[in-house]
User: Which sequence fits this backbone?
């Protein structure tokens, strides 16, 4: 029950983010979540889109380094403590979070969506499902 | 009174007499090499010549050239002309096997080398009353060993500091009253900057001269070093293949370097045709060692481009002068005093990534220090969605480059096709230092 995430290598110089997002726009790709991890010289842009394979192809066509990775999209209640309980669940099962960020997806009015990259997807899926968390599937994601 | 020359007879010898001396030594040397170096003998045979064809320096052009490729093919003992048991020393350049030069010395070879350096020290105003601070690296590198030996020959008090630990260098300089500094020009400039940062002026130290070499430097840099340290800065030239620093040196005129031509015959050739060019032409410098016993290279192509001149020098020396090298006839770069070939970097990239990605070497000089950056175009299999993986890759590359070259490079990963190409071929080296 993972979703696909698009990752793009972006050099740290003016105009690169513009070039990436324009390429996605031209391919008719809708962005559902985005985060950038940056170092001094480059960044890695991670994006949840409505069609990851098409996005990867469009970016590669333009000469970008892009790849797809499987991540978890967790639906959480939009209230204090819900993120803490997700983290506790993962911590209890000794699962490491590599990175995470929020998505612009609101399935219901009082929920939020968290994109999680962990070191063991299967283990995290089991732990979170058992803890009563809702994980989005690829098809659910594309329907929202 | 201390003399103006270390070896007046040689250093002021009439040209005709010098040519006679060179001829005698050359004839003897060719015989020595023919008898002891099968590798070179074969080269001579291929050209259809024997030692009988070499009757003096006018016949020098008949001899075959030696190049770095010959050194590689014959590594390590193939060009050795003396029994190993007669050798007392080796010195070497940095670099990978194949690019590394290992030179052998008998005791006589060490003596002649040190005497050549002694001439340079005396030309820079050195006498036995001087305190010589050697801040070249010690070890296999010829810089430390060469200046150290030359300083001993002159009878100077020698401080074997080696390079690095700049505040300690300055402390010793003050406490022991160093009068002559020997190191790379960029390190001299750095010492000058540090001196000022520590709140001192040139009046606080006793330095009067500096002998700087092993890397290219400009007149502007000379002026800057002279000002920051309150000294006269002299250039010294040499290469491990011929012995080390001291093949040529600057005198008080500070305009061109006198070649110790009683030991090394210099020629200028067209790098493309190998044809010997007349005096005053710009071309590739070729050296023939006529006195070395263990590692006597005949017609060795240095790949350094320069001009020779026999114009009368105000210092009284008659030794031929060479200009500072104006460039290279191969792709070798000298960065922070270290010889760097782009192919060495390619080797590391192939090892780390299985295939060589596109890369570009960017060398610049910020202030007086060389900067060395390698841009590498990222490929799909080098990429990961986590920063950790990409940074690990970057660090591994940086460590491997340092391992093979001995100097650190800044690694910058860039997007594919972002390195400019001319006619489809990537531009491998951008040297922004204006050294010529």
Assistant:
């Amino acid at each position: 029950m993972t979703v696909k995430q698009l990752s793009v290598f972006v050099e740290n110089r003016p105009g690169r983010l513009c070039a990436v997002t324009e390429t996605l726009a031209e391919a008719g790709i809708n962005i559902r979540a985005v985060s950038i991890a940056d170092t001094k010289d480059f960044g890695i842009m991670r994006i949840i889109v409505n069609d990851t394979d098409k996005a990867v192809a469009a970016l590669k066509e333009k000469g970008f380094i892009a790849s797809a990775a499987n991540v978890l999209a967790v639906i959480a209640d939009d209230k204090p403590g819900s993120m803490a309980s997700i983290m506790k669940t993962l911590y209890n099962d000794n699962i490491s979070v590599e990175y995470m960020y929020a998505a612009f997806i609101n399935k219901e009015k009082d929920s939020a969506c968290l994109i999680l990259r962990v070191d063991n997807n299967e283990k995290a899926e089991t732990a979170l499902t058992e803890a009563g968390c809702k994980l989005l599937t690829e098809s659910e994601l594309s329907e929202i | 009174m201390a003399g103006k020359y270390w070896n007046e007879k040689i250093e002021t010898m009439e040209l005709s007499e010098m040519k006679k001396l060179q001829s005698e030594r050359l004839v003897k040397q060719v015989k020595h090499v023919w008898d002891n170096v099968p590798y070179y003998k074969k080269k001579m045979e291929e050209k259809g010549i024997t030692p009988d064809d070499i009757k003096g320096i006018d016949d020098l052009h008949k001899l075959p050239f030696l190049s770095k490729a010959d050194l590689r093919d014959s590594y390590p003992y193939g060009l050795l002309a003396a029994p190993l048991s007669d050798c007392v020393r080796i010195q070497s350049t940095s670099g990978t096997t194949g690019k590394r030069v290992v030179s052998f010395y008998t005791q006589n070879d060490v003596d002649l080398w040190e005497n050549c350096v002694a001439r340079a020290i005396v030309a820079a105003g050195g006498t036995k009353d001087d305190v010589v601070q050697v801040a070249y690296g010690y070890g296999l590198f010829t810089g430390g060993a060469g200046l150290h030996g030359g300083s001993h020959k002159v009878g100077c008090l020698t401080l074997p500091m080696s390079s690095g630990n700049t505040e300690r260098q300055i402390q010793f300089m003050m406490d022991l009253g160093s009068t002559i500094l020997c190191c790379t020009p960029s390190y001299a400039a750095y010492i000058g900057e540090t001196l000022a940062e520590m709140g001192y002026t040139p009046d606080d130290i006793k330095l009067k001269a500096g002998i700087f070499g092993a890397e290219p430097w400009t007149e502007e840099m000379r002026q800057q070093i002279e000002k920051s340290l309150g000294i006269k800065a002299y250039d010294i030239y040499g290469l491990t293949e011929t012995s080390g620093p001291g093949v040529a040196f600057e005198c008080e005129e500070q305009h061109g370097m006198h070649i110790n031509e009683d030991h090394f015959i210099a020629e200028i050739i067209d790098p493309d045709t190998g044809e010997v060019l007349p005096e005053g032409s710009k071309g590739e410098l070729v050296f023939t060692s006529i006195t070395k016993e263990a590692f006597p290279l005949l017609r060795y192509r240095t790949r350094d481009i320069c001009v020779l001149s026999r114009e009368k020098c105000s210092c009284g020396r008659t030794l031929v002068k060479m200009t500072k090298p104006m460039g290279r006839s191969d792709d070798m770069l000298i960065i922070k005093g270290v010889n760097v070939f782009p192919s060495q970097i390619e080797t590391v990239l192939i090892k780390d990534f299985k295939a060589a990605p596109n890369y570009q070497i960017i060398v610049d000089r910020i202030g007086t220090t060389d900067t060395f950056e390698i841009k590498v175009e990222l490929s799909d299999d080098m990429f990961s969605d986590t920063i950790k993986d990409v940074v690990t890759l970057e660090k591994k590359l940086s460590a491997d480059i340092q391992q093979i070259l001995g100097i650190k490079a800044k690694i910058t990963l860039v997007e594919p096709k972002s390195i400019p190409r001319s006619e489809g071929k990537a531009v491998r080296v951008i040297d922004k230092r204006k050294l010529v």
About this structure: The mean pLDDT of chain B is 92. The longest strand of chain B covers residues 300-309. Residues 15-36 of chain B form the longest helix (22 residues).
